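Shipment paperwork, digital attachment
Item: protein structure file
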Amino acid sequence: MLPHDESLVPRETCYFLTLNVVDRIDVFVRPTYKQVIADALNHFVEVQGVTIYAWCLMTCHLHLLIRTKEGYGPAYFERDFKKFTTPELIKAIEMEMDLRRDWMMQRFEDFSKSLKRIEKFNLWQNCSSPLYIDSGQPGLLLDRIDHIHENPVRERIVESPESYLYSSARDYAGIKGLVRVKVIQQQGLSKFRRLSAN
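Attachment content:
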């Protein structure tokens, strides 16, 4: 179980990002592909000092609520994350017995050509339009966390958010998840709201 800091409220800027797969292709339907993303998120926590407050991987997109180190904004994170995960995902797709493999690879190659990229494959769409959330907006922070965690429920994949393995909802329910997440407790946010109101 991850340690929970009851008073943890992010004091720095947070960003809500959605990273979409090219043409909204349902890439993340196999555990192998999903694990690439979980491993990559842990890598960025350990190596780049990124703090992940919430995440949820759906079939064609990834939602994140993160804080990056000073001088390493969300655009740098997005660039590096896509550059890091694309070859790993391509390798996983090539190794799987996936009937859609050739079709997906062709779409990724065509998209890269349309952008006149050096890389042969481009798996991710270009822009995530990160939403800035400062520590003075605890309500918005909670709304974003709920929005992230409710994705698989809205898609009728699971009945409750914590039942979905590829999400931080498990961490918020006290179950160890796949990614090192900093859990924001409701008590900490309530305390912070009172301090902000005074």
